[in-house]
Design a protein that fits this description.
Length: 211
């Protein structure tokens, strides 16, 4: 089994980028490009990734930063102890300080969504688990399901036609993107590939992708 050179994981503070420190910059660059290109539209512009490997060569860190910048992303180099909840204000006696801009978070759920549950977020949603029949996922941005999707999924719920829906097994009862709706056929074949639903030429299409 080939080693995983780059892994992107979601967490409550955003995304973590785990890199194999023994890999070359060329290998890392190819793997990051592959992962980003396989999920176009999922990561909003301005997304910052936290590097998890402390012993990376400085030139490799710089190369990763430049590569992410080319895609409209960045590396979060702020120390963890300095972080605070999004939208809160730093404690300071200086009344002239300007408040930091509020950054829209991505909702990350590390569990299976059961039938009858409804998950709603104005941002994108990443689910590390299955979406069972009867569950509903509604996102203002894109939806990525690291598991089987058998519920109803609605991406771009407030009009974002560039939003996408991705799942390891995409078998939903209904797919919605922006104001468009597509229903699953009565008999659906199980795919051996991850799939992406998106709007092309005025209709929702489903196409295979590589994770």
């Amino acid at each position: 089994m080939s080693r995983e050179l780059v892994t992107i994981k979601g967490g409550k503070d955003g995304f973590r980028l785990l890199v194999d420190s023994s890999a070359s910059m060329k290998e890392i660059e190819a793997e990051i490009k592959k992962k980003l290109d396989s999920n176009p539209g999922f990561f909003p512009e301005g997304t910052k990734f936290e590097l998890e490997v402390a012993d990376l060569d400085r030139s490799v860190k710089k190369g990763i930063d430049q590569l992410l910048s080319q895609h409209g992303f960045g590396v979060d180099n702020s120390p963890k102890q300095a972080r605070r909840p999004i939208g809160s204000q730093p404690a300071s006696s200086n009344q002239n300080m300007q408040p930091e801009p509020v950054v829209q978070e991505m909702m990350v759920l590390n569990r299976t969504i059961r039938g009858g549950e409804e998950i709603t977020s104005q941002s994108s949603i990443l689910i590390c688990g299955n979406v069972n029949p009867g569950a509903q996922i509604i996102a203002g941005g894109s939806i990525d399901i690291r598991g089987t999707c058998r519920g109803m999924v609605h991406a771009g719920a407030w009009g974002d036609t560039n939003a996408v829906i991705i799942a390891d097994r995409l078998m939903p009862t209904q797919v919605r993107i922006a104001n468009m709706i597509a229903r699953s056929p009565d008999t659906m074949e199980k795919s051996d590939f991850a799939e992406r639903a998106c709007i092309k030429d005025g209709q929702i299409i489903i196409e295979p992708i590589e994770r």
